[in-house]
Specification:
Layout: E1 2-6, H1 12-23, H2 26-29, E2 35-36, E3 46-50, H3 55-62, E4 68-77, H4 81-89, E5 103-109, H5 117-136, E6 149-155, E7 159-165, H6 187-197, E8 205-207, H7 214-223, H8 268-291, H9 295-298, E9 300-304, H10 307-319, E10 327-330, E11 346-349, H11 355-358, H12 375-383, H13 390-409, H14 412-428, E12 433-438, H15 443-447, E13 453-459, E14 462-470
Parallel strand pairs: 5-6, 8-9, 8-11, 9-10, 11-12
Antiparallel strand pairs: 1-3, 1-4, 2-3, 4-7, 6-7, 12-14, 13-14
Helix pairs in contact: 4-5, 6-7
Amino acid sequence: MRFFVVCPGGLEVPLAQELADIAQRPDSKALGAWVIDPTPTSPTGGVGLAAPISAAMALNLHSRIASRVLLQIAQAQYRQEEDLYKLASGLAWEDWFSSKQTLRVDVTAHRSPLKSLNFATLKIKDAIVDRLRDVTGDRPSIDTAFPDVRVQAHLTATQITIYLDTSGEALFKRGWRDEKGDAPLKENLAAGILSLTSWQPPQVLFDPMCGSGTFLIEAAQIALAIPPGAIRAGMYGDGAKPSRLAYRPLVTSAHGFGFQRLKPFNEPGEQKRWLALKEAALAQMLEKRAQYPDAQSLGISGGDINERLVAMFKGNWQRAQLPDTPIIRQIDALASKPPQNAKDGVMLLNPPYGERLVMKGGRGRDKQSAQAVDDEEFDNRFEQNLETGRQSLKRSSRESLKRLQAQEEQDPQFLEFLRQFGQHLKDDFGGWSIFVLTADMALPGQLRIKESKRTPLFNGPLECRLFKFEMHQKRDSQPDLK
């Protein structure tokens, strides 16, 4: 079978490496042969591969970077909308799901000659509904919010590819997040950034502006070999504490992944393979838990000036099934020190803009970050988009960035904070590798530190950069000028 694994823009290379790692797992090899497409050299929105149908289960359970795992059903040439109907109506949808299940259809396009994607979507939806009605005598209902089955189609100038979404809810929805702070970061983007930093446990990892803790929780789960899909897979049973977020019930074992509502995956053979995948993952988790029995042993810690966010992080940590309570202090980032007196390590942060960085005391007001975006809206616009819309996204990103920078240029208190924070890094974090995700391309100048690398990424609709700063050890006779 052919799959297309969707990821946030800019993470194609780490995703390809992650897919190769998943394919090399003994439990994945037992499913059959995997062939991963060459690593993309330009943004593609994901990575393709050929593998047994059972690979959908392993990918959804283990991929930290993927947004969705799409299973290719058909591919053909087309010229007009009727060609879409003809192709879709000729597919044996009754082999995949029943007319009693709800359906959603989405279409994306890249240089398609068709004038209306909405009309194209309608034709494909009608074809699926008509096919099931002709075969079963009944038709499925449409549910655009919480469908049982999601069908996706992608149009190029001459070709249509039809997919079944085996993920269901987007995979960044791990099921442990209860609340979000300023500058919310999707979990799969955080995992991809961790991969770009080359951080590996038990190396020290520190986030002085950790907010609700996304970077640190993803890192801790990596260290403990906790699959990102563990909660959806029901690996904790009733031990998973409920979250208040509306999507939480959809990412538990009761609703699970999209593939669990497709007929082929409910055959006895596939159910046996699914159980084997979970048992192998659980055995690895138990092994790592013995290696890292408590939070202190992980070497992962953070700080934040906001008392509410510190409490939020602690709650998210517990729902993510991590040991004890996280190592976190309510502290101004300018007063933070290397944890455990470490002489080197990785600092990773996604700083919010505005008042939260410079407010006095631990309470203060929460200000909506310029990076805060509607997850669901962007999930529909970007994660389901295989190649398209990048130019419009870039235009909107530039406009947002211009507004953001204009506001910041009028905020001398904020600029002074950045100058002081840059000096703080030079004075107290010599020998460390510092990684900062930001939409502000001028950040290195504001910190007065020259970056050693910059990686383009998308955080929601904002085009961002992951800046890397190598902090040199200070000499006794000379101040560090870098």
